[in-house]
Each structure stands twice: as C-alpha cells, then as structure tokens.
Design goal:
Strand content: 5-15%
Helix content: 55-70%
Distance between the termini: 22 Å
Number of strands: 6
Strand order of the largest sheet: 2-1-3-4
Radius of gyration: 31 Å
Number of domains: 2
Number of helices: 18
Length: 439
C-alpha cells in the first residue's frame, strides 16, 4: 500500500505544480464568476447618463420619449448639420432625426452616434415610435387603443411539485434544465480531460522506458492504480478550488455591490419598453429578478455538489482505467484512435441524448441511461435537478461502483502485459488474449 501511496504522491505533485494547472485553476473561477458578475457590472457601466438629442420635424413624437435612469431625451430646435456639430462636440450621446416626408405618418428615422449605439436604447426608440404610429392608425380607424390594451393579458404559470406526503414545493424547470445540462457537460469534459492525462502519462513512461525501472519495484496493477488515483485527486483538487474561489469572488462582488444588487431586486434595469410600476411586478407580486433569486435558492446545492463529486470520481475512475489500458497497449498516441472510438461512443451518445433526457427526465430511456455505468455519470447528473428517487440514485451509484471494479479488472489484465510490450501493432484479438491470459 505504501508503494501505491508514493505513486499517488508523485502523480499528484507532478501535475499540480504545472503552470497549466495553476492557470486553469485561476481562470476557471474567473470565467464562472464572470457569468454571474458581468450582467450586473454591465448594468453598472450603463448607469451613466446618456443624453440623446431629438429633431422631430413631424411633431408627432413630442414628449413621447420618457427619460429613464440612464437615458435622457432632449428636443433641439436647429437644423440637422448644427445638431451633428453638437454631437461631435460631445454634448450628446446620440442624435435622433425624424424627417418629415410626404407620407402622413413617418415609417423610419435616423439615429446618429459617435460610437456603437446601445441596443437597449435603439430598441426603446423603435418601440415608442411603433406604438405611437400604431395608436394614430387605430384612432384614424375609429378603434380605441385603451380597449386593445385592456384585452392584453399576461399569464403567469406557477409550477408546484407534490411529494408523496402531499407537501407542496415550488419548482423551476428552467433552472433545473440549466444546472442539469451544465453538470453533465462538465463531467463529460472532466472525464475526457483527466482520462486523457492518464493515457498520455502511461504512453510517455512506456516510450521513454522509465516504466521498466518502475515495474521492477512495483506491480503493474499498483502502478496503474496509483496513476489513476493521483490524477483523480488532481481533478478533485481543481474542482474544489473552482467552487471555493468562485464562491469567494462572487461573495466579494456581492458585498461590494450590495446596494446595486438590492436595487435590482426591486426594479428592472432600463430595457426596450417604457416600464411602469405595474410592469415591474408580475402577477404574483414579485419582480423578475426576485423570481430568479428564488429559483436559485430553491436548488439543493448540497445534493447537486455531492452527486457531482461522486459521479465525477466514479465516471473518471471507470474510464481512466480503460484509458490507462489503451495507453499501455500502444506505442504512440497516434495508435490510440482505433481503441478510443469504442470508449468515447457512450460519452458522446450521452451528450447527444441530453436534450431528450431534459424533455423527458422520467422516461424509460432516461432511466436506463442513468443506470448503465458507461452513461450514468452524465445522464444521472442531468436528471438529478429534476428530482430522482433515492432508490434510483442508490441503484445507479452501486452499479457505477461495480462498473468501475469491472473495468479496472479488465484494464489491469491489459495493462500488465501491454506496459512492457514494444514494437507490436495490437488489435482487438490480441487484447482478448491478454485479458484471458493467466499468469
């Protein structure tokens, strides 16, 4: 056991000291935190007061554009060229020119700006002009706009889960879908990335003949097991650091910008519509931002993270043993292609079936894919946010452990022979002989 510990220690320290590991450990949390921070930061940056000048030759839109928290509209009474001069001097962010034409109602306008126009401001201007023109056309036809407005309705569909005891709990399908898909894809990449590290490490040691020295002191199985566990600990370390650093970055950001986050919970940021108090609240009395916070708080992150760690380790150990066997059976990475395809098909198939599983997480196909060890690490992680019975989860975990033991036994048979085999092209028939070979 001490020999395996030494191998684990060597594999672990060799990889965590690499520059690539350090860079990815830092970049990972920054990228994940950016997904949560950037929207708020952009809102902060867009909080500056931008003045838009208006030349309305038609007079139809006078005082129709309402000022918001970060956009101010101002009518200017001069010719277009003079107004462009004001724009160049920096007095205005943009210039809206509504030209008078032979048509009764204008159908277009021009927005001048010294830089790329904010898409939200552009959408708002288009929306105001569209509504005003439509209102005038309706009035000309004798149709009251208020009647049409009163006919418009917003439907808020609240989803409630009922457990066997009749307890009610809010459910959010969208957040379950995002978490499930993200977890499944993350496991997919982790298995490929760290499994490939094991394979490359075995090939490097084999081609450099270092393995001949190593196996003189330890058994091939101990070497393979130590290498697999060592790399697994590297992946686990990186994941835990990602979680801790991401949480730390987000906590610091939330503390620094607490006022802005609280503000987001009570009012919407300027968007493509003129927002009133009634529009800020939905029919349940909550703002859209508050609804998002409630959805996030409803997630059982303890179960998600614990399940992720198990299925990451279980899936990795299962596939890493086979990756190590492939590395031992070949002399170069170019020779691995014929053996890698059968190994990668279950993983690729799991990603392909992810959309089906999301649409039907309790279907028969979803159930069996989450039970079979070769596909369960990805599929079960997609299903867990939607709710999985403890019996199904336990069965999946037990079969994954048994699958790992089975693949490890097969891989060990191949590894012990292939690790010292040089210069021979190996095929599946040869691998079958190695598996059935009795020492």
């Amino acid at each position: 056991m001490s020999k395996i510990s030494l191998i684990i220690h060597r594999e672990y320290l060799t990889r965590v000291r690499k520059r690539s590991f350090i860079i990815m450990t830092i970049l990972g949390p920054l990228l994940m935190a950016a997904l949560m921070i950037v929207p708020v930061y952009v809102a902060q940056m867009s909080g500056q007061d931008n003045k838009i000048a208006i030349i309305d030759e038609t007079g139809i839109f006078f005082n129709k554009f309402k000022n918001s928290e970060n956009i101010t509209f101002e009518n200017v009474y001069c010719d277009l060229e003079s107004a462009k001069t004001l724009l160049k001097d920096g007095g205005f962010y943009a210039l809206l020119y509504i030209q008078k034409t032979n048509a009764t109602l204008p159908s277009s306008a021009v927005l001048y700006s010294g830089k790329q126009v904010n898409i939200m401001a552009k959408s708002y201007i288009e929306d105001v002009m569209k509504k005003e023109i439509e209102g005038l056309k309706l009035a000309a036809s004798g149709i009251d706009q208020k009647i049409l407005d009163s006919a418009k309705s917003n439907i808020s569909l609240l989803t409630i889960k009922l457990d066997k005891e009749g307890k009610e709990e809010k459910s959010y399908t969208e957040i379950s879908m995002v978490i499930g898909m993200f977890s499944g894809i993350l496991i997919y990449f982790f298995i490929f990335f760290f499994g490939a590290q094991v394979m490359r490490g075995v090939i490097e040691e084999k081609t450099s003949r270092i393995v001949e020295v190593i196996v003189s002191s330890v058994k091939p199985f101990e070497l393979m097991l130590g290498k697999i566990i060592g790399v697994a600990l590297v992946g686990l370390t990186q994941f835990l650091l990602w979680v801790i650093l991401t949480f730390g970055i987000f906590t610091v950001f939330q503390t620094v910008y607490s006022k802005d986050l609280n503000k987001l919970k009570t009012q919407s940021i300027y968007n493509s519509k003129a927002i009133s108090t009634e529009q800020i609240l939905n029919e349940s009395g909550q703002s859209d931002v508050t609804e998002v916070f409630d959805a996030i708080s409803s997630v059982n992150f303890v179960l998600i993270i614990a399940s992720f760690l198990f299925y990451f380790l279980g899936g990795y150990l299962l596939y890493a043993a086979l990756f190590a066997a492939v590395g031992a059976a070949v002399d170069s990475e170019a020779d691995t292609q014929q053996f890698m395809l059968p190994l990668t098909i279950p993983l690729i198939f799991s990603i392909i079936m992810a959309q089906y599983v999301i649409n039907n997480p309790d279907g028969q196909l979803s159930f069996w894919l989450s039970i079979v060890p070769l596909t369960s690490p990805i599929i079960m992680m997609i299903r867990i946010p939607f709710g999985v019975s403890p019996l199904e989860l336990s069965l999946s975990m037990i079969l994954l452990v048994l699958g790992f033991l089975g693949t490890t036994w097969i891989a060990a048979k191949i590894y012990r022979v292939g690790i010292l085999m040089y210069g021979k092209k190996v095929d599946y028939k040869e691998l079958r002989k190695w598996i059935t070979y009795k020492s």
